[in-house]
Amino acid sequence: MTYAPRVRLSPSRKILPALLVALLLLAAPTLRAHHGLAAFDTTHTIKLEGAITGQDWVNPHAFIYVDVKGADGKVVNWKLELGSLGMLTKYGGWTEKTAKRGLKVTFQGFPAKDGSPYLSLGRMWFPDGQSLEGKP
What we know:
By secondary structure, the protein is an alpha+beta fold. Helix content is about 20%, strand content about 30%. It is elongated.
């Protein structure tokens, strides 16, 4: 009777599959979180005016909040989604001080599909005539 030699896996061959599974599990929430323009109606844009009420200068996307007075006289606070801080500052001309509270601006972009006051910012115009892209 002959016996087949026992094959032993080296520790690195045992760990590699487990490590790959762990990395995939850790990366999954990040991959799912980046939605791109899925929440927005990219078939048309809207253009509105209002006064900046605040901002969230954070990654993965910065946000600017703007009070817009509607035709009915009601004020609605819009949430404007911009690109990443790296892209905004390196290529777009934005800084954390660009969107000052109280500044009256005009903005254009893709509205939210669900009708909420949420917009993917395409461009913002400032009182001095300067304009900046929201996703450079």
